[in-house]
Amino acid sequence: MGIDLERWLEALGSGRPGGIGVEAWSVYAVERRRLSIGTRDGATGNAHTPLKISETLGARFLAVWEDGKISRGSLERRQIADDPLSALERARGSAYADPDAARVSGPAEFPDVELHDDRVVGLIDGELDLVGHRLARVRETLAANDFGTWSGAIAVAESRSRLVTSIGLDVEDRGTSAGWHVSFDGEWGDGFSARSLDDEPAFELRLSRLAETVRHLGRPRPPMKPGVHPVILHPHVVETLFLGTLLQNLEGSNVAHGEGFFKLDEFGSDRPALRDDLSLTLDPTKPLKSGSYRFTVEGVPAVRCELVSNGCLRTPILDLKYANRLGLDPTPAPYGMDALDLGATESVSERDAYALADGGALILSVLGVHTLDSASGDFSLAAPQALILGADGPNGRIRTTISGNVFAVLRDEALRPVRFENEPTPGLLFPCHLDPT
Amino acid sequence: MAGSVIAELEGLGSLGRELSRRARKNGLTLIWRAQVREVRRVLVRDGRPEDTSHTSSSGHAVHVFTDEGRTALASRDDFAPEAAIDLLRGAASAARRSAALGSRSSALPQLVPVVESAIPASAPAFDGLDLSLLIRRLAELEREVAGEVAGVSLRVSFLADLDGWRIQRSDGTDVTFVMPRCVLRLGATSAGRDGTHGVGAALGAPDPGLPWNDAEIAVFLRRAIRAARLARDLPDAPDHPAGSFPLVIDYALAKGLAHEAFGHAAEADGFRSSILAADGRFRAGERVGPSHVSIVDEPVAGDHAWQPFSANGIRRDRSVVVDHGRLRDGLSDPWSAGEGGVRLTGSARAGSFHAPPLPRMSNIRIEVDAPLPAPGSFEDYGPDEVRDLLVSAGILNRHPRVVFLSGYSGGQVNTATGDFVFNCKAIYQLSGDGVRLHKPAIFSGSMFGALGSIREAFGPLVLDALGTCGKWGQSVPSSGGSHYFLFLEPDPKVRIGGKS
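ok -> structure tokens follow
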């Protein structure tokens, strides 16, 4: 049975707060059950990291009123079920003029995308053997490596969503999500999240690589001199720093308001904004990825979308409002990094990259990405977890700061994507200014 | 209706009491947390609204403890009585099952029951906020800034957040508190030859009348116009070289230093891996900084991060984390205080009713004994005036060049290693030749190196630097400050990033 929105839909159809009715509307509702357990400094399931279960039902809506004004907002469970007229009055109280946003989606073809895994539902329902097994494997890894402590979490959820609009769209969906994260000795962590838990071999590989990396971090080495050195950014750093910055600057509102690095007239141009073999593609139709879906909250169908190809900007990321404002088609939205593909004509394996970066550093994590001004692309970050590289690979720990500019790196002829096993996002190898401490 | 959030919290008492009764009957200890929150937001750009909303979020959680000390937390986003009883049943079952996962015993220590409430006078006024008037007012403020600084893209926003909690424990505790928070913000972005830069300014207050309060708006406009000018000038400013330098930081950056470098490491739930603890116990009494420097955390009435009770229903105490250079108090809750060797300070806060409370900061500040005078208000001080302060204190005689880091843009810390980082909005090089603007860069290094290098302070305390703390994925408002400015001697363990 679908999510029951009848009372709210009835209110939208018949309510007239202040004598003004709703001319068009869109409602996106999600009902979710979630289970999680955490571990802090080796203590699993204590008062700070309890076994946690939650139930939520909420909705986001757009109402276009007869006077042309719009209201956007969210509804909580009791407003949907028990008090829709008060919620509508409140919505009217926050109505404002925004003609570009006064648009709802009609019926469309939505792709079949694999989003649900019954095994995750079993975990939420209390079949916790797998969770117990994985916690035990983490504890065994801790002991085998003589690490002092570990922290982490496992979370699973099941959700149902429903999107209804005033012009005949009524579509539903069901999905699951699952993820885990582990760090040893407060130093470095790794994990996985998707719409299904990773299989055992992938889990074991990631756990053993994590332990190996933390062992490397336990061996301090004299740093290299400050200056420009070859650097490999770990895929996690590429996601937070490079993909995060790119997405911010591709965001339709930033492009429309001139508040991003990219200017509107660069989109659709044949003049490369990045190196001419680089591409960035959003594909929310991949099976069982965190960033996969069938439709956006506004009813835009999931479809593969080239954001950058051959270094040229193809389209900003556009919701209905900014598509209207810029006179372009709406695009799918990036809901997870694993739905993005950053590519180049040539990439190198992790092993080959180590040889190319001999004398440089592998940057495992950075502090302070959220403090950067993404519009400039400038970065200046502490990297207390970095490994000095020999031709054969990591050779002990250094602490450093790294600095540069994301967009300059993405235009650099020396840039090489690096394929890391088990990672959807590549690492990046490039010359970077290091200031070891 | 006057005070709808307050009225709703008041009406929930019987639900909490019934859940407590059932918990006791089943041999459980219960902490019940109910939250009712209303948030109104308006964003104006180019004189017109870009986003306006009025949303509420409410619900409750049962946090149960079995007599073996197993625990679970179950939450739901309504207050339906039957569903609440199912929630309690589910939580009890989950707590018992958690033993199979190797969970750590976590019994709630004996506490003194508290029955109190704290509802600031401004809370009922939130119901009367008219969003259409607010849109017009923000557009006026945007025009005023645009009239002073041309060629900059502006956006002005206002957030009115009324966050009410009721917490009951099965020992009879019943605490209600409502936290009123309003924030007026300006964002300014400008593009130049060498890229695009954005700078923000903000002012917080507990009263939704903030946009119409002349005195507060005068302060906001001074901050906003300065931010817009900075956004205009930054794209063409050069990078600053990396390295260790004599530094001046303003009170917002000092708050970042206190929060990121020391506050998080003093949170007692992390003592098993904190650099301020050994074998899980706080290193109280150890010297970590000079004897003229202290770090204090406490809820401040009217402040953005004010919270008078913990999310476990305990009155929050003042915590002197560093007392004249020596470690003194941790930030603790009932489960971490004894084990961590610190007194109970009632410091637990939760991002929402869904989340387990964690020890964390409220308003944290760095205090320096015998600060040097800095007459006037903080807004009177631009880089030239800061340079004059350094001249009058003889600091430019000691160091011919001093780097002034201005404005806080967030930070992060690794409490296990003591590495911290935060970013500023601008860097000014101050010297006998004058003042030179540079692009922002990170300020990073060892927390002990940073605290140890603080030498002079200028001006009185200002504690209104706003922020959001995201510990373990839970966002709560944070704030703090220090004297107008702190001077830090160069230390090789404290560096500015940047480019060579």
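Residues 219-241+345-436 of chain A form one domain.
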